[in-house]
Amino acid sequence: MSLESLALRKGISKAEIIRLSLDKYLSALPVEEDPALGIMGLGRSGKKDMSERHDAYIVEYAAACPKRTAAVFDKKKRG
Length: 79
Fold this sequence. Notes:
Mean pLDDT: 83
Order of helices and strands: HHHH
Number of strands: 0
Low-confidence stretches: none
Oligomer: single chain
């Protein structure tokens, strides 16, 4: 069965089928195989509340370094 025919049969978009499929696949993986876990604990900020306030710290950094932040987003657009 093709993705398009499945989407028509289910009455949802192909993108939604892909999202649901990825969610199902990723949720079945053992937690220890998640590659994102490899970045945890790589650095030290000295802040005790980093896990709770990470968004606020990113906003503060972006405001303090607007040129550097813009350069990161420009690079992502190009590449």
